[in-house]
DNA sequence: CATCAATATGAAAACGTTTTCAATTTGATT
DNA sequence: AATCAAATTGAAAACGTTTTCATATTGATG
């Protein structure tokens, strides 16, 4: 009934060697005579011995597990990053402990502590904001942490992103160039640095270069949800917006459907550019033009960076910006 | 530089008690005199002691971690289940190690073994098929395993699903009742029991009850991808299908867009019912009618069931069927 | 064949907890 | 005051590895 586990000690006894030797062959240490290695391997096979990773973790102080804090796996943007993270993690023999934070500061702190208690070798953090409390926890953590799709206000943590300001600026310029004088800026909370310090900045910059006066009535701060976007239509109409740059694809889909459901035509009456280029952009009609981001790669590169940090390898640049683009689809002319 | 960790031993020394007592207060064991408890708690606070979960896992043979095998986090259907799993896991103080399997049998087996090596207390498995090899691994695992959104051919593993056959039958009947004589059946591989033994069976049953002859030209076996669905349009037209029951929402979105992009009208020329009721159904236009499944709940209930199994609690029913429904939206008349 | 360096091995000490069992203290009851 | 049960505590043995250090063993070299 009880799990009759076979331990390294059993193998050692059967193979008539010491535990140390078994450990060596299991870990591929070359200092083992081929004959001994074979003998041990045979016993391992015969006994169906599987090393206990927990014991290993205790002894070696390495768990080959990394923590991943994600706002919500259900969100296409984040799950794309998560996939990149997991693939690279697996490639380097790590597993990931995945936890949803709902962007809730308290939950984030708590989850971080659990992960540290579990002795993860590193952490990838995704989220739109880093609360002061969380930052403090990050600082006292001895474990390497990298941010993915998440900007660090103070700019000192390893991170992987695109240049959101430049991307938004380019997108907005694109809309203005086609004659849109009143371009709405729709994003999540402006408390989030990514929105306040990057996207909005790019937006303003584009207006400025085009000689258009900034009008804060055109700035919409909302939830990152489909529903929230859909409900925005009347407000957009009331400020005479003819186009919008939107910070999230689900949100953008909501905006677009709100607009079309109200009888307007996208892109003829209203143009939309969204920000994350998830597969959702291709599934809605019209297909949404978008800033393109290498989502999978952001996760993958973040994880790769983390492996280097965990290995104490020299890393040249801790703040990585990946290239972005602009993909024209059918929500713009 | 090296992590200067404070251990239970440090606390014991400072508080002038034994490790055993510290362990007791940390674990909320009631057999500790209040005064002692306070003394220990104070030292813990002062030293900022954090129990090492790995050591704890080794000593107690419990890791409070469960493994989750998922085909692809990026898939809305599965990520919805995953979210339910994680929430309940967290509620019961478990963490989840999440690994993508890509439905690749070899990878599944390998991942399962890694999870077992890491001594997870339980496993939730999602996937469309259980290969023979995998089944064998499942059987020799001493760890409880539950299937979520995944039918077990042999019917002996704990699982949480809906009654796919009945749901599909009802959906197809719905289409037939509105006059559709040629209803296409579009799903993923028919090698998967869920398609072959349940959905297709429900489909045939509905035809039979309506007195319509089964025509295998109307059965389309394809990938669960948007693209695959989109490319199906010519084939659908060539067999004069006027409606379809589709096994996956992304796939269905592809089918629908393929049809509309070809100039046909949904639902007037072609009706569609999809199967998973993910949020995607609301985002496309027309919105897709769907079999409704309590996705989040399937994950949640599966995890809850797992907690019972892990605790050796009595469970009355190991094969759980959750209620389904039919949601009429705009892809049907 | 003596010597020395390299190569293989093993003994035992970590790693940081939980848990068992016995010992001690406490408090209530005569 | 004596007794006994219950409540608290501590010592030490797990848990299953890795790793250090010393010891054998081997092979090459002069």
UniProtKB/TrEMBL annotation, chains A, B:
<keyword id="KW-0238">DNA-binding</keyword>
<keyword id="KW-0010">Activator</keyword>
<dbReference type="Pfam" id="PF00356">
    <property type="entry name" value="LacI"/>
</dbReference>
<dbReference type="InterPro" id="IPR000843">
    <property type="entry name" value="HTH_LacI"/>
</dbReference>
<feature type="domain" description="HTH lacI-type">
    <location>
        <begin position="6"/>
        <end position="60"/>
    </location>
</feature>
<dbReference type="InterPro" id="IPR028082">
    <property type="entry name" value="Peripla_BP_I"/>
</dbReference>
<dbReference type="InterPro" id="IPR006377">
    <property type="entry name" value="CcpA"/>
</dbReference>
<dbReference type="Pfam" id="PF13377">
    <property type="entry name" value="Peripla_BP_3"/>
</dbReference>
<keyword id="KW-0805">Transcription regulation</keyword>
<dbReference type="GO" id="GO:0000976">
    <property type="term" value="F:transcription cis-regulatory region binding"/>
</dbReference>
<protein>
    <recommendedName>
        <fullName>Catabolite control protein A</fullName>
    </recommendedName>
</protein>
<keyword id="KW-0804">Transcription</keyword>
<comment type="function">
    <text>Global transcriptional regulator of carbon catabolite repression (CCR) and carbon catabolite activation (CCA), which ensures optimal energy usage under diverse conditions.</text>
</comment>
<dbReference type="GO" id="GO:0003700">
    <property type="term" value="F:DNA-binding transcription factor activity"/>
</dbReference>
<keyword id="KW-0678">Repressor</keyword>
<dbReference type="InterPro" id="IPR010982">
    <property type="entry name" value="Lambda_DNA-bd_dom_sf"/>
</dbReference>
<dbReference type="InterPro" id="IPR046335">
    <property type="entry name" value="LacI/GalR-like_sensor"/>
</dbReference>
């Amino acid at each position: 009934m009880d799990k009759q586990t076979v331990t390294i000690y059993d193998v050692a006894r059967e193979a008539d060697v010491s535990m140390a030797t078994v450990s060596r062959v299991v870990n591929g240490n070359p200092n083992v005579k081929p004959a001994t290695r074979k003998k041990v391997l045979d016993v391992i096979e015969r006994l169906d011995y599987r090393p206990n990773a927990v014991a290993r973790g205790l002894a070696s102080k390495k768990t080959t597990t990394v923590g991943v804090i994600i706002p919500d796996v259900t969100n296409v943007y984040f799950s794309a990053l998560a996939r990149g993270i997991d693939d690279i993690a697996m490639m380097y023999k790590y597993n990931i402990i995945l936890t949803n934070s709902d962007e809730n500061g308290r939950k984030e702190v708590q989850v971080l502590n659990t992960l540290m208690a579990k002795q993860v070798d590193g952490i990838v953090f995704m989220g739109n904001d880093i609360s002061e409390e969380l930052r403090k926890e990050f600082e006292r953590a001895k474990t390497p942490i990298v941010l993915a799709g998440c900007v660090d206000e103070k700019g000192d943590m390893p991170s992987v992103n695109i240049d959101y300001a430049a991307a938004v600026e380019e997108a907005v310029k694109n809309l203005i160039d086609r004659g849109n004088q009143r371009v709405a800026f729709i994003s999540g909370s402006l408390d989030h640095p990514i929105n306040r310090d990057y996207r909005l900045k790019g937006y303003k910059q584009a207006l400025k270069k085009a000689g258009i006066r900034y009008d804060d009535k055109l700035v919409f701060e909302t939830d990152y949800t489909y529903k929230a976007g859909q409900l925005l239509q009347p407000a957009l109409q009331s400020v005479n917006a003819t186009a919008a740059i939107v910070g999230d694809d689900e949100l953008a889909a909501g905006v677009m459907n709100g607009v079309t459901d109200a009888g307007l035509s996208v892109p003829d009456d209203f143009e939309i550019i969204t920000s994350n280029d998830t597969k959702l952009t291709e599934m809605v009609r019209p297909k949404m033009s978008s800033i393109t981001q290498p989502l999978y790669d952001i996760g993958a590169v973040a994880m790769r960076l983390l492996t280097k940090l965990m290995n104490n390898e020299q890393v040249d640049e801790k703040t990585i910006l990946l290239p972005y683009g602009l993909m024209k689809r059918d929500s713009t002319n």
